[in-house]
Amino acid sequence: MLLLQFSTSHYCRKARLALGYKKIKYQVENLTPGLHIFKVKPLTGLTTVPVLLPQIAGQPEAIADSTQIFKFLENYQPQPTLFLPDHEQQTTAWMLEDWLDESIGTATRFVYYQYRAGEGKQINPSLASQAVIAVVRKQYKINEASVKLATNRLVTALEVLSIRWQKSDYLVGNQLSVADIAAAALLSPLALIPQYRQGYPWLFERIVQIHQLCDETLPPGLA
Question: For residue 36, what are the contacts with CB-CB under 8 A and spacing of at least 6?
Answer without folding.
Answer: 4, 6, 47, 49
